[in-house]
Amino acid sequence: MFLIIGYVIILAASLGTYAIHGSLGALWVPAEYIAIFGLAVGGFVASNGVQMMKSVAGALPTVLKGGGYNKAAYVDLLAMLYEILAKVRKEGLMSIENDIESPEASPIFSKYPTLQADHHAMEFLTDYLRMMVGGNLNAFEIENLMDLEIETHHQEAHGPVHAVSKMADALPAFGIVVAVMGVVNVMGSVGEPPAVLGKMIGGALVGTFLGILISYGFVAPIASQLEQKVDAGSKIYQCMKAVLLASMNGYAPQVAVEFGRKVLFSTDRPGFKELEEEIKSRKK
What pLDDT score was predicted for residue 234? Predict the structure, then answer.
């Protein structure tokens, strides 16, 4: 939503102020638009493989959606983790074997459909719970493994961000290429009247204008939005990591979820009392 609002402001500030003292028709040079578009698409295809192009296509719709996790979702996450660890503490690790082998049929996980629908997060959680069930674990080694997995996920998720950012960086240069081609065309028409030459020069400069405007006004904000969503999306893994490691180190479920609560951003973090009361109400 804010992306669209930003686009409207950018167009109003650029084209709106220009229209006060100039003709918008002078900016309509179809050949320049086609050239800029073709160069941008060509550069993007040449710079990325098929898998990256699919990743970008899949990531672009997310810029118009809200964040994946908010305060309510994290309360659900911490409540779910508490319920799992409480069951382990009361009935033993083997009691959750069926839950982690068939999460879709688990009576615990089925209470939290939003989290259950997040395939990557559920896979992360069940994999490490499966390791806990499988035998004695060295918490330091598991922490290192978790860090590596989170970093790998983070790098993979940043792929579309880098691809879109590179395109934004290239667009001003493509605008210069189009402008230079227009100037070359002007130099070949030096015998034309000044009015004709002026129109041709103005058309050539539209290429530079388009390259810079599209780059910094339209493509760069998309890269920024994608990056913010990637950074926010990694927080759920850090939260689960903190809770599971605390449990491995022998902390009670009530304390373990407090470790997870502490790693959340302040805007999404429930208060201590708030989380405690929520967990108590769900136990009843």
Answer: 87
